[in-house]
Amino acid sequence: MAKYGGWAGKVLRVDLSAGKISTEDTVEQYKDYLGGTGIGYKVIWDEVQAGTKPFDPENRIVYGVGPLAGTGVPCNGRTAITTLWPTCWPRPLVASGHMGGHFAAELKYAGYDAIIIEGKADHPVWLSVLDGKAEIKDARGLWGQGIRRTTIEINQQMGPEASVAAIGQAGENLVPMSVVINSYSHSAGGVGGVMGSKNLKAIGVRGTGSVRIAGSKEEWEKVIKLHLSLLGANNQHVVPNNPQPWAEYYDAGSRWVASAGRRWGAANPSIDTGACEPHNLNRIAYRTNNAAFFLGDKAWQYTIRGNGCTACPVRCHTMLKVPAVSAKYGIPAVGQNTCTGLLFGKSFFKSFPDGPKGQTAIEACMVGMHLADDLGVWENYGQLQRDFQALYYNGIFGRKVAEKEFKSYSWDKYEQGDPTFLFELLPKIANKEGELATALGLGTGHLLERWGIPEQEWLENHELLYWKLGHPKHHSNEDAGQCGVIINTQYNRDAQCHSHSNFTRNGLPIDVQKRLATELWGAPDAVDAVAAFTPMNTYKAKMAKWALLRKELHDCLSLCNWMGPWVASPLKERGYRGDDSIESLVYSLATGDKKSRQELDEVAERIFLLHRALTIRDMGTKDMRTRHDTIPDWVFADLKDKAAFSKGTIRMDKEDIKLAMDMYYEEMSWDKQTGSPTGETYRRLGLAYVADELTKRGLLP
Amino acid sequence: MYSSHSFSRREFLLMTGGIVIAASALEAKGAKEAPLIIMDQAEGLVIADSTKCVGCRRCELACTEFNDGKSWPTMARIKVGRNLNFGPKGLRTGQRGQGNWGNGLIIQDICNQCPHPVPCANACPNDAIVVKPPTNARVVDPNRCTGCKMCQRACPWEMMSFDSDTDKATKCFLCDGNPKCVEACPSGALSYVAWRDLTDKVPPRVVPTAVVSPEKAQTCIDCHKK
């Protein structure tokens, strides 16, 4: 019997240039990096030279899952895909995309913790991974097909249970704004083109094996039930969004939307979501309906049910059936997604004839999902659509695109909010047809450069929510003040960190949050009420560090940072406490590698530091503070010119943010002046080899 | 007319209200007498509401993690994963079928705890599938199971599982009355209810190919001849 539970034990390596398939021992090679992004960063550090471009055969793309993927730990369905990022501007840097669905679990059952792809096949191929056996298969017949058809045809070969992660035409055509999708609607942004550059159309996985739980089954059952009891709704919102008989609090912004009278109207017969009293673990799946959350009450009547990843009771994807779209647009009546994927089509439009939450908006969502999730176009967390609106309404398209091409689009339809406009636009992005669509497919940074638009214009614009490096903010000052700002400086794409916002937006009153914050980060001042921010203090820096390490930990263990961490709960009898050590509890029991919360956070810090080191190495500078950890101007302005720290503004203060970065670097034991980790910090976390390499390159502070 | 029995099996069953001890089949093993193949009826049953299933597979994971200490949906005694993408008919219906790629309906396959005949038990050459109180679930006795997989070929609903770590068959044993799958379902799609006969309600998935031993076949004839 293997020494550890949790891990499948093998990492699959596929060299597409040589057609060679090999395996590595997960525990031997990668245990110090857990899995997921940890394996990804390690492979890229070891094997990909600085200066490599995303579409070079030498680039690696690593599909990593962790020891918890495929187990019954709630919310373990995510696969982290790490590679050099094509939309990272002005130079590609390491980043990761994360897809849910059933791919992660299936990969574990097939016997692997990760797949490393290198090289480039000389013709289109797909990879079949079937119970410990991997094969490179001919994909010439699939090339040019959408994701749906590709998936179906691979399922015909591998069986209906296989999980297929495929790219569409966008990825094939090396559109940087492209995705890979598995399980119908679960995408990882940005990586479609990297797969395309390797001539890799898809990976199909099917496993009939198991993941062994090292601890006793009784203890495992106990900790799983504890974890389940702490869950809220999507984004770990722990109070309902409207008064409920059982609830002490409610918050209108909560994604816990279930209530008597709100029905899954397209279930047959319809189902009332009813009271979802937190102790009733058989009703967790009814709490969330992200279609209703994002699209308004009208979405209830179209809701078939919630959907989502393996083992996740939260079901953040909502499956909709909108019969009218079949006749009107010739598309399937059923569609599903969440958040920006759900809103893909709608977000292009400024307005609709029947308002932002009317029937047309829902139809635009259906058309958008149908097209984007088949062509494999990425929305860059909504930046594509925000850019589109700005470029059109500011007349930039008209100036940058030849008149004939510009006029070939039905702009009247676009302005009227007619979803059929999407049939003109989205296939062109995927197929790189014309200047307009080709530029949009590059991602914001490269588009601005191509059209000679100063990035500064984007940095100053409040509505665009652009942050840096070609990417937008992701839960920044609007959710967590300075903590959000710090977090948004750290990554090479949108930050994708929810640890902080899932706490500040959990719906609990600020006094309860402050009580919990005292226990977690040392003082009530770690958190402020949203838009009633106070000046920086060290506890906010502690919270930022915690948030980042938990994000990285989740990405390595295969826990969903969109749902966790679980430091608050809906349970009144616990004083709404969650459990800050739930990750270490489940990790220790699953693997048998007993680690305390602090010990596991240290592993997370090692992995996070490796990401930092890769960024430093590939940027060729140690001056991260001024050259990487930058903050857009809009953060320091307010449209009504409200002063920072006054009520109702998310405006930050420049001097205060300087202090925030000082405190954060200090908390991380990094050099304050450069924002670079010190040699000592690398060594303390087991990264002496990284420190040595950076010393050689003159990149240590 | 009735060989050496003083009562026919049918008469015996009628007299005893259908209660015959399954273990008698085992006691009879080795004796010339043909085994009784009629089991006590199960007390309970897991039933599923497909319209409520959200496709998370927590039932399959609870089944194998809490009973066997491993996450192993393929071995689960409730089967959802095989219907998840395209429904029970697989890809034969393309995207117009059931499951995540069709109309969204997910069918949970569950052991019917068959009354009579009990195809898995009848097919077992070692009489390893027995009735277990208090639920009277049909369960695999691992001490008798030799891992021949005849039971897998006998169940029209493909509800037999196989534990390749122990080389033994396994099946739904109703967790002795507190089914883990029911407890684990986050949408309340599963219920543990008093047993009722679903064998003529649930469409079979396959045509069984197992062979019943001649001596058991003889007992069938005992009852079923006119």
Summarize the structure in words.
The complex is a heterodimer of chains A (701) and B (226). Chain A has 701 residues and is of the alpha+beta class. Chain A has a 6-stranded mixed β-sheet with strand order 2-1-6-3-4-5. Chain A has a 6-stranded mixed β-sheet with strand order 8-7-12-9-10-11. The longest helix of chain A has 23 residues, at 597-619. The two termini of chain A are 46 Å apart. Residues 1-32 of chain B have low confidence and may be disordered. Helix content of chain B is 23%, strand content 13%. Chain B has a single domain (41-214), classed as Alpha-Beta Plaits, CATH 3.30.70. The N and C termini of chain B lie close together (12 Å). Chain B has 8 helices and 9 strands. A two-stranded antiparallel ribbon of chain B has the order 1-9. Chain B has helices at 9-15, 23-27, 58-68, 81-84, 119-123, 150-154, 180-184, 214-224; strands at residues 44-48, 70-71, 78-79, 109-110, 129-132, 137-140, 161-163, 168-170, 190-194. The chains are: A alpha+beta (701), B alpha+beta (226). Chains A and B meet through helix 3, helix 4, strand 13, helix 7 and helix 8 of A and helix 3, strand 2 and helix 4 of B. Strand 13 of chain A pairs antiparallel with strand 2 (70-71) of chain B, so a sheet runs across the interface.
